[in-house]
Amino acid sequence: MRAAKPVTNRNRVNNRMIGHINRTLLGFAVLGAVALAAPVSAQAQSQPGDVYPVYPAGTLDIPAGAPPETADNGRVRNVTIPTLTVFHPKPGADTGTAIIVAPGGGFEHLSMINEGSAVARRLADLGVTAIVLKYRLAKSMPHPPAPPVPAPGPALTPAQRAQAQNSSPSAIRAMADGDAAVAFVRAHATDLHIAPNRIGFLGFSAGAVIALHVATNPNPAARPDFAAAIYGAMPGDAVVPKPAPPLFLAVAADDKLVGPASSLAIFTAWHAAGSDAELHLFQSGGHGFGMTQQATTSDRWIDEFTWWLQMRGLLRR
């Protein structure tokens, strides 16, 4: 286990997060030298599943009475300590490219197999060092009670629902974890046997919000070198930088939760900023298709992403 380096404070983090980040930075200053003094061994490098804490121990404020982290049916809930799980390519097959993978789940759970480990293993087969981010979540139960029936009123559009969700305290914490994950991976590029200028961020649904958040970081040094957002929405206060990292987008036309309009808007904003973007709008597949095979063209999103990586030279040593 290894401590991370500090993450650059973001303008979009609200005042409640600033105190937390300052405390975290203090922990980094004390523990940073210890982290770099113990490089990952060659034997550990060859084994998938190495786990690292995103922040140094004792630097996060864990709410009193927080329920324990649980896993059920491929979903993880109540994460209070974010981690990074590394899936290494086979020895001699690594390309030097790394991709942080952020599963979705509405900031209430994480789809750790369908949008996490299954994706990471596929990427590792391509020679990519895949790193699954388990970020902090809102408190939730495996089978929550039915919500009260809302009072009659105008129905929210998918974009309005996404915006409300993406500005929640849990979303803000998760986006801060995304920033810290990029900082950690880049700081430990040598230990992880990756190139510090070939670090990507791939997110699904809520994880795609995190991917777009880090891709639009006002600090160029804190951004990933490329990004991918699968059925995601742009954080409300995000401004696409000029230039922005190359971006891959994928969504199904019958996605009822986020809707394809969000991905179309992101694609348009990226091009308006003069940056590279590629959008795949599949006829069907719904929301959350991930690595689930449904006999729809969305099953091939990972192939399209592979070809995109190959075209950009990211699958060559």
Largest sheet properties: 8 strands, mixed
Q: What share of the residues does DSSP label as strand, in percent?
A: 15-25%
Q: How many distinct domains?
A: 1
CATH fold category name = Rossmann fold
**Global shape:** globular
Give the topology string: H per helix, E per strand. Answer: HHEEEEEEHEHHHEHEEHEH
Indicate the radius of gyration in whole angstroms. 19 Å
Number of helices in the DSSP assignment: 9
Q: Report the average pLDDT across residues.
A: 83
Strands ordered across the widest β-sheet: 1-4-7-5-8-9-10-11
Report on this structure.
By secondary structure, this protein is an alpha/beta fold. The protein has one domain: Rossmann fold. 33% of the residues lie in helices and 16% in strands. It has nine helices and eleven strands. The protein has helices at 15-36, 42-45, 113-125, 158-166, 169-187, 189-192, 206-215, 260-272, 301-311; strands at residues 50-53, 70-72, 75-77, 83-87, 98-102, 109-111, 129-134, 199-204, 226-230, 247-252, 277-282. Helix 5 packs across helix 7 (206-215). Mean pLDDT is 83; it is low at 1-47.
Summarize the structure.
It is built from nine helices and eleven strands. By secondary structure, it is of the alpha/beta class.
Question: In terms of topology, how is this protein built?
Answer:
Layout lengths: L14 H22 L5 H4 L4 E4 L16 E3 L2 E3 L5 E5 L10 E5 L6 E3 L1 H13 L3 E6 L23 H9 L2 H19 L1 H4 L6 E6 L1 H10 L10 E5 L16 E6 L7 H13 L4 E6 L18 H11 L6
Parallel strand pairs: 5-7, 5-8, 8-9, 9-10, 10-11
Antiparallel strand pairs: 1-4, 2-3, 3-6, 4-7
